[in-house]
Every structure is written in structure tokens, then in C-alpha cells.
Amino acid sequence: MLDRRSFVTVSLGTVSALVLAGCSKGGSDSDVAPAKDGFSSDGAKGKKVIFLVSGNLGDKGFYDSTAKGINTLASDYGCETKIVEMGRDETTYEATLRDVSDQDWDLIVCSTFSMREVLEGVAPDYPDKSYVLLDVASTVPNILGVSFPGNEAGFLAGTVAGNYILENFPDNKVAGFIGSMDAQGINDFLVGYIEGVKNVDESIKVNTSYVGSFEDVATCLEMTTQLYNQGAEVVYAPASQSIMGAVTASSNTGKALIGCDTDIYSELIDSQPDLVQHVLTSSLKRLDEATIKSATGLWDGSLKVGTPVNMDVAYGAIGLADNDNYQKLVSEDTRKKVDEITQKIASGEIKPKSAFDMDTEELTKMRDGAKA
């Protein structure tokens, strides 16, 4: 189950009532089924599961969270598991995927849009194999595509950022966004973030920068520092493995940061407390839970390959990290507003725009129009 101590969400009863009422679209496919709770672990023992990391572990985000789910399948469900770090050389992915597909794995887990093309090209050659593709709503017959709407995560982050600025810096209404790459998956966070900020106060500006890499900490430090120097009082950082640069910039300048994909405050508070003292919260995709529920759902029949599933706010897979800093630095009034917005997104009353539904011109207009 989700750890309620570290994850902001509406009550389970409310979520259950709202799942069928309105699940937002994730990714670029419209025929995405809502996810369901109540997955069974029957039949999991002895299953062989491998996770192909399209990068490296240690990102304190997407990959580490997925790996946590894989490790839980081994420790709590009796699965035989393996994790392979493929690095960033995408030219090697197809050969590795084919090699693994020739072996006797029951489930092959991949993730992110960087794996979509190669997996959707390889999977049809192995029709008896089952694959999970996290963060992509694939409809290939033997792939379970699992999408997480970044725009919903961004909207919640924008709600915190906008209210934080209004309460503490009413005379300098500037927020910032640092993304790893200028790509649809990252821009989905941006679109939601801008809308979330503007939903609080239309006059708040949002300056945007991109690292140009998933794992360039030094450049991320430089560009996040620049955002702060340009007036941003809080920066949202869907920056992948580069995020430590944003965390360091926050610490150096004494300005607020909102992390992404993992609870960066809780990850570092014991080992590097000075780095995370200004981290307000993080938007979360519960990749660990999604990995477990994707696997067990396929095995108990509650999920099916070829039918993508959307693990969104209504499902409880998207939210904000609720930790000591969130309680200390984010006002009670703002936290109540986050709860209200969460319920409205879950019910469909609020439907954030998505970068996946926007062309380049529309996205550029939105991004440039928000700048200070």
C-alpha cells in the first residue's frame, strides 16, 4: 500500500469513489484504462522478472523507485529478479533487449520514452513474452503500458509554488522550472506547473531552463543558480539524475526547491541535511508501487497486456511528498489547498493541459508567455 506518512493524497475512500468518475489522459494515447486497486499477489512466487534500466541507478528518482519495486517483488513476493543498467548508449538497447527476450524471463520491465521505439519494435518478435513499459501508454499486444500524467504532478507542484510565493514574496512573483531535456515527457510537467501556478495567481511568472542532459549535475547547478539569480523564489526540478545540481543551487542560494519523482528531502536528510533544508516537497510518481501492481496485476488477470493503464492522481499514484519540511515550510493553508486541488483533479473538475496534446508552437507560446 502507499505510505501515507510520505505521500500527500486524498483519502482512500474518496479516491476509490473518484477513480471511475474521471481519470486524466496520460501520454499520447487516448484509449487508456483507469488503474484499479486490490491487486492480488497470487501466483507471483517463483516468477522471473528483469528490469532493463535505460540509464543508471542512483538517480534518486525514476529508476531508483522502479528498482525498489523490483526488489520488493523479490523480498515480499518470492520472485526471482535481476536489474541490468544499460547506460545512456541507446544503440545498445535493442541487442540487450533481444538477448533478454531470448531468455526465460516471465516479465521484462522497461521504462521511459527512450525505450518506446526499441521495445515496440522488438516485442512483436517475441509474442509469447510479456513486457511492462513504464511512463508510456503503449498498445502493442504483449506490452502493458503504464502512464503517469506528469501534468498532474506539475499542477500540484505549481499549487505549492504559487501559494508559497504569494505568502512570502508578494512583491516578487517569479517562479522557476529546470528540466532535464526539452522533450514532451519533461514539458508535460512544465505545462501542469505553469497552469498550477497561474491557477493560484495569474500574475506570477515562470522562467524555464533545460539542462540538455539527464545526468549533467554541473550544468544543472549552473542553470538553476541562474534561475534564482533572475528572481525565482522557488524552482521546480524535473531534472532526472541532474537534480543534485538543483538541490545544491537551492542550498547555496537559500531559496526554495520542489523536487520530482522521489522524496529528495527524505533521501538526503540523514546524510546531507544542509543540502535539503530549503526543499519544500517533491512531486511523486510511485514507480515502486506501479511496478509491483503491474506485475501482480498481469499475473492475477486484473491487468492485460495491450491495454495501457493510467496511474494518476485519482488512482493515488501521483502526489506530493509529505515530510517534515513540507509540514514546516509549507503553510497549513497551502497544504489544505493542495488537498482540495488533489480532489478536484481526481474527480475531473480540474483537467490540466498536457504537452502531449500540444504542438510545438502552442507549447512555445505558453512557455514564453509565462516568462518574467
Care to describe what's here?
By secondary structure, the chain is α/β, with parallel strands linked by helices. 41% of the residues lie in helices and 16% in strands. The chain contains 13 helices and 13 strands. The chain has helices at 12-19, 62-77, 93-101, 116-122, 150-168, 184-200, 217-229, 243-253, 264-268, 287-300, 324-329, 332-347, 360-370; strands at residues 33-34, 48-53, 80-85, 107-111, 131-134, 143-147, 174-179, 205-210, 234-236, 256-260, 279-285, 309-310, 318-320. A 7-stranded parallel beta sheet has the order 1-12-6-5-4-2-3, sandwiched between helices. A 6-stranded mixed beta sheet has the order 8-7-9-10-11-13, with helices on both faces. Helix 2 packs across helix 10 (287-300), helix 5 packs parallel to helix 6 (184-200) and helix 7 (217-229) crosses helix 8 (243-253). The protein is globular.
